[in-house]
Amino acid sequence: MRQLLLEDLQAARRRDPAARTLVEVALAYPGVHALWVHRLAHRMWHANPLLRLPARLVSQLTRFLTGIEIHPAAVLGRRLFIDHGMGVVIGQTAVVGEDVVMFHGSTLGGVSMSHGKRHPTLGDRVMIGAGAKVLGPIVIGHDAKVGANAVVVKDVPADSVVLGVPGRVMNVTKDQAREFVDPAIYI
């Protein structure tokens, strides 16, 4: 567990050029705090049906404190980095791959009130831009990038860039994709 927590700190420091030290990340990054508490709530959710209500209460307290709502049943891969975090929502049946980056205001949400899989599945190394909404039981392929404020309701192939409302896969090079999605170029 200690190794996993350190890995979360290192992922945030590596992905955020504003992060100066691991101590700063540990004390001042709500995305890291929400992720850590989610790990606890997720274990509670799966440990015993009697712990599901306490797991939900823990997740709601975390939402109140960080502005990030992650359902305890959501499956999150290693080294997820939630940058800034305010307004991020990750629904109950969402599955997030490894090394994913999500920016503030982004949503992995559902479009149905039925039981079963109703939230997105993200592959590894996916980037979800600020304000983007990824909705329904769709799959976002490995290394895909979803642009800021895009609304995605259909599957996205690996190594793609999705922009617009509704989200459309754009035929761009990886260098061009950085211009559309990666806020680090503005620093």
TrEMBL record:
It comes from the Bacteria. Coiled coil: none annotated. Pathway: Amino-acid biosynthesis; L-cysteine biosynthesis; L-cysteine from L-serine: step 1/2. It catalyses: L-serine + acetyl-CoA = O-acetyl-L-serine + CoA. It is an enzyme of class 2 (transferase). Keywords: Acyltransferase, Amino-acid biosynthesis, Cysteine biosynthesis, Repeat, Transferase. CDD domains: LbH_SAT (cd03354). GO terms for molecular function: serine O-acetyltransferase activity. Its EC number is 2.3.1.30. Belongs to the transferase hexapeptide repeat family. This is Serine acetyltransferase. It comes from Georgenia halotolerans.
